[in-house]
Write a structure and sequence with these properties.
Length: 79
């Protein structure tokens, strides 16, 4: 089970992410692609068990500038 403070690697991208050219997606699919294989700290967990990862660094920003919510099945807890 993933918990706040864990270091996790994004090992999969959710199948249900819409393509970036769909209105209102804000480049979410591309953001997930840039995060794939990278390690991040879990900063939150929602009521569905999804982990919040601050990922701004993949866009050359401070990490807190962007975040994604990811289901645990897409994450591997890094040692």
């Amino acid at each position: 089970m993933v918990k706040i403070g864990d270091r996790v690697r994004l090992v999969a991208i959710p199948d249900d992410l819409p393509p970036d050219d769909e209105p209102g997606t804000l480049g979410t699919n591309s953001l997930f692609q840039r995060c794939l294989g990278r390690v991040f700290s879990v900063v939150g967990i929602n009521e569905l068990g999804y982990a919040e990862l601050e990922v701004g660094e993949v866009n050359g920003q401070p990490r807190y500038m962007d975040s994604i919510w990811v289901e645990p099945s897409c994450l591997f807890v890094a040692e």
